[in-house]
């Protein structure tokens, strides 16, 4: 169940949509993980995957549109590099969402504590 | 991803949000707290300033539930009073292990509906709750994650402290 928070406004950001779309694919996540260790060319990125260079290039285009990577205009090689900011923003939402729910669940903890205390009381009075 | 504190939240695939949380209670109690109105009302609170005014549960497959929250008029605020309602239908009930229900808000704030699956796994008297929310579309899921959550959750922590204090003196 998900509650709507007070002050919610419909403010879609296309770039942030693109971030989530880009992150939803395992190959693209693997590419990002590889780029986290340093920049790499398309050829280098294609190597560990059983994929053609054009297929990898397609994934790179998605990542580039989402602003997750940048590519240097470096003649033939055009190495790719990770841009960490949109990633941090995406995990930032999850963190806000998590905090909202953690507040609710801490209330539930208290209710459960009370239920346990009552069950204990009932057991005791039955003896 | 986000994993500090007790609650873990991850975006899974294109259309899901998965929340995982451990509760220090047997799953029969966790299941009760999710399905009995008098218990739901005490923890499923809106943001600070809101109260739950309607909490109806018809716990049968095909039975409906309905929740409404209300924020009373605040001096100097033209917008209030304000209500927010949501409801759905129970699709699968396997107490105390699993509860599947649909969810829909009165004023749709994300496109389409969602399907909510609660799974409760008990071990050594503790219950791991896995709540998977499946949205109709990726846009809906992302919209939910992006909605600015109320920052001031401090008030709910205060209520928690009160409840804990009461539980201890009993």
Evaluate the radius of gyration of chain B.
17 Å
Assembly state: heterodimer
User: Which sheet architecture does the biggest sheet of chain B show?
Assistant: 8 strands, antiparallel
Strand content of chain B: 35-45%
Let me know the CATH homologous superfamily of chain B. Answer: START domain
Order of helices and strands of chain A: HHHHEEH
Bulk shape of chain A? elongated
Number of strands of chain A: 2
CATH class of chain B: Alpha Beta
The CATH class of chain A, by name, is: Mainly Alpha
Task: Note the run of SSEs of chain B as H and E.
Answer: EEHHEEEEEEHH
Total E-strand runs of chain B = 8
What would you say this structure looks like, in words?
The complex is a heterodimer of chains A (127) and B (170). Chain A is built from five helices and two strands. By secondary structure, chain A is mostly helical. Chain A has a single domain (14-126), classed as Orthogonal Bundle (Arc Repressor Mutant, subunit A), CATH 1.10.10. Chain A has a two-stranded antiparallel ribbon with strand order 1-2. In chain A, helix 1 packs antiparallel against helix 4 (53-65) and helix 1 (14-23) packs across helix 5 (84-126). Chain A is elongated and about 85 Å long. Chain B is α+β, with helices and mostly antiparallel strands and 170 residues long. Chain B has one domain: START domain (Alpha-D-Glucose-1,6-Bisphosphate, Chain A, domain 4). Chain B is built from four helices and eight strands. Chain B has helices at 27-35, 37-43, 138-146, 154-169, and strands at residues 8-12, 16-23, 50-57, 64-71, 82-94, 98-105, 114-123, 126-135. Chain B has an eight-stranded antiparallel beta sheet with strand order 1-2-8-7-6-5-4-3. The termini of chain B are far apart. Residues 1-5 and 148-170 of chain B have low confidence and may be disordered. Chains A and B meet through helix 1 and helix 5 of A and strand 1, strand 2, helix 1, helix 2 and helix 3 of B.
């Amino acid at each position: 169940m998900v509650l709507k928070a007070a002050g919610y406004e419909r403010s879609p950001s296309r770039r942030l949509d693109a971030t989530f779309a880009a992150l939803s694919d395992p190959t693209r996540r693997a590419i990002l993980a590889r780029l986290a260790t340093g920049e790499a060319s398309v050829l280098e990125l294609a190597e560990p995957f059983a994929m053609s260079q054009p297929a990898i290039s397609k994934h790179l285009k998605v990542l580039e549109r989402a602003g997750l990577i940048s590519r240097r205009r470096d003649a033939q090689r055009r190495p790719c590099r990770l841009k960490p900011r949109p990633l941090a923003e995406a995990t930032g939402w999850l963190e806000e969402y998590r905090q909202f729910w953690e507040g609710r669940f801490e209330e539930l903890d208290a209710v459960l504590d009370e239920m346990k205390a009552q069950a204990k009381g009932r057991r005791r009075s039955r003896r | 991803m986000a994993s500090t504190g007790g609650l873990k939240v991850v975006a899974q695939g294109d259309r899901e949000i998965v929340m995982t949380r451990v509760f220090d209670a047997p799953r029969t109690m966790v299941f009760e707290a999710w399905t009995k109105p008098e218990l739901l009302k005490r923890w499923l609170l809106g943001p600070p300033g809101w109260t739950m005014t309607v909490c109806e549960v018809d716990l049968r497959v095909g039975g409906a539930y309905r929740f409404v929250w209300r924020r009373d008029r605040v001096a100097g605020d033209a917008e209030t009073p304000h209500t927010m309602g949501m409801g759905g239908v129970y699709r699968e009930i396997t107490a105390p292990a699993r509860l599947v229900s649909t969810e829909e808000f009165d004023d749709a704030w994300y496109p389409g509906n969602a399907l909510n699956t609660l799974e409760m796994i008990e071990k050594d008297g503790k219950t791991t709750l896995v709540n998977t929310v499946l949205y109709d579309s990726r846009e809906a899921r992302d919209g939910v994650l992006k909605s600015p959550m109320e920052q001031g959750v401090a008030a709910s922590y205060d209520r928690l402290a009160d409840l804990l204090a009461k539980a201890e003196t009993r």
